[in-house]
Amino acid sequence: MVATVSCDQIGDSQSTAEADNTEQIVAVAEIKGASDSNLSGTITLTENQPLDTSEILPTVEVKAEVSGLPPNTKHGFHIHQTAKCEPDFGAAGGHFDPGPYGETNPDANHPFHMGDLPNLVADAQGNAVFTHRTSRVTLSSGPLSLFDEDGSAFIVHIDEDQGTTGVQGGAGGGRLGCGIIEKQA
Ligand SMILES: [Cu+2]
How many CB atoms lie within 10 A of CB 127? Predict the structure, then answer.
């Protein structure tokens, strides 16, 4: 869904250019676990483009609701580089990191990949609610766009992201769930 924010909020200008600069872009990913798991979830990404793109970079709000996690656990949660969850979650590749450093290896230069996010934290019922705003990615076109040639996907990891650099599995180890990011028309 591409919605245009009302100009009422920024004055009564009828300028088309100004209206274009208030565009909101939304994308959604549906998280699925392995066929024998109860893991499911929905992630909504919203980019509110700045009123004046010459002054501020766009940011993307990431909201997630995930259920079916083990109770009272933390899970690494990242945007990975390829919009693929099949034949297994490894198909999503490494961490989204188009540059300028461009290191997609989950263990290297972590947690500084463009797709790195805080942990998902499951409560006693195995539900996690997550809200974060990142300036490391965009939904609009550009060098940090999640909608590059091969798209992008979310991965939920088995273990906690320790936020370490150069430690094997420190970003959360194996993959519990996967969801392809799709732009809403
Ligand atoms: Cu990851």
Answer: 16
Distance 57 CA to ligand 1 centre (A): 25
CA of 22 to the centre of ligand 1 (A): 32
What spacing in Å lies between the alpha carbon of 178 and ligand 1's midpoint?
Answer: 10
pLDDT of the chain, 185 residues: tens digit per residue: 444 444 444 444 444 444 455 578 999 999 999 989 999 999 999 998 765 656 577 899 999 999 999 999 999 999 999 999 999 999 999 999 998 899 999 999 999 999 999 999 999 999 999 999 999 999 999 999 999 999 999 999 999 999 999 999 999 999 999 999 999 98
pTM of the model: 0.86
Domain that holds residue 113: 28-180
Whether 56 maps to a domain, the answer reads yes
DSSP per-residue codes, 49-118: --SSTTT---EEEEEEEEESPPTT-EE-EEEESSS---SSGGGG-SB---SSS----TTTTTT-STTB-P
As a residue count, the chain comes to 185
Number of domains in the chain: 1
CATH of the domain at 159: 2.60.40.200
| Residue 66 to residue 68: CA distance in whole angstroms | 7
